[in-house]
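Reviewer has doubts. Consider these tokens.
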Amino acid sequence: MFLSPILPEISLFFGALLILLADVFFAKNKQEFFRVSYLIALVSCFVSIFFISQNIFAFGKFFNQMFFLNSFICFVKFVAIALLIFVIILSLNFLSKSKEISAEFLALFMISTVGGMFLISANDFMTFYLGLELQALPLYLLAAIDRKSAKSSESGMKYFILGSVASGLLLLGISIFYGFSGTTNFDAATALYSSNKVPPAVVLGFILIIIAMFFKISAAPFHMWTPDVYEGSNTIVTTFFATVTKFISALVLVRLFLDFSRGWAGIENVMILVGISSIAVGSFGAIRQTNIKRLLAYSSIAHVGFVMLALSASSLEAIKASVLYMVVYACISLGTFGFLNLITGLKNRTDLSGDELDDKIFDIKTFSGLAKTNPIMSLILAILLFSTAGIPPLAGFFIKFYAIVAVVKSGFVISAVIAVLLSVVAAFYYLRLVKIMYFDDVKENQLEFDSRLNPKLVVAIMAAFNLLFMLYMNSLVTTVSTMLGF
């Protein structure tokens, strides 16, 4: 079938359109109609996963060689849709409370994911740019979707302005690349420079292109939007940013290195600089943060640094380490931000609302003594924080270990040592939060949690994934190796 390579994207996109149409005609008159939109979103995701499974062994280029498909790309799409399903499940509390927003934000989630799926399959810079913009445009709306929140409006404006700058850099890079190479097709460019020396202008064009991707994954020094957007956006939107969007964007960069630019002289120095800078910014920037969403934003910057550092090795093992890192980190982020989505309010503080309530809820001091009032939720968050810090034998330790080993084997020993030392610094603020939960006195204003089982189950599954990672680590490594073709 001619359209079979893009059936996953089509099914997800039409599901989003159906939600928007149904929302226009029915949601205003039926207060509980959001449950139908919720169901449509989940069904569309599962249909998309079915079509992805049908393409898992497909290999080839389609639509005049502008669209590429192989096992690795199908694997990325499968994980992205699985993360989207979990995010949709976590969104039920927001859907039930925010009747004025209704369910249109679910459609924006799905459309943005479709853009990411086109982006990972792009085999030409024209398709690449269209996919990137389709992914980004819904994100600008999502960041500012809470119209009653001044912080949400501010975060949407900041993200839009900086996103426009990144898009401009991307177009400039593509123009320079095309002007000096005569092609925008990945295969043609690879064949052109596989045995010839790459002209400096072409390298400059490619660097501008990956700088645009550095913005998307919030790698330093292009991270400035991340803390403000993570803090100002609604928690469920932040969860989507930290999981689906970051996962796809990082692996798009991995794919560019896997298929396009490995071995280009000088690129590894850019990756080392960005990697070390990101780890340093994330490690030191989070120390002074009192808002847990801003703290996790800086944490995400540091984790991206490890992926960039691994990519600098330009080896097959480094590529595998980068993919494994992003899979596990996406699960960690889903758990930690999913935990924040479970928080519904504060006991004895009905006088607060909007931004004031959010500031109070997400202040790390509000978590004081949480282990005494809610031991199970505290244990789940502690497991996720220990894994994020890289404490053995949790999943976070092993992904950092794989990344560092790949860097050392490529001869960048000093960079690896710096990364390890900075990782020790970063452990401070994770352990501080655990200390606050377990050893500080209980505050008068205690956190209230969502009573629904499904969102709690998602967070518990992510915690169990990190805790039991050793049992199926080899299977996951083997799966990643098989999908990558080595």
User: Anything to note?
Assistant: The chain has a mean pLDDT of 86.
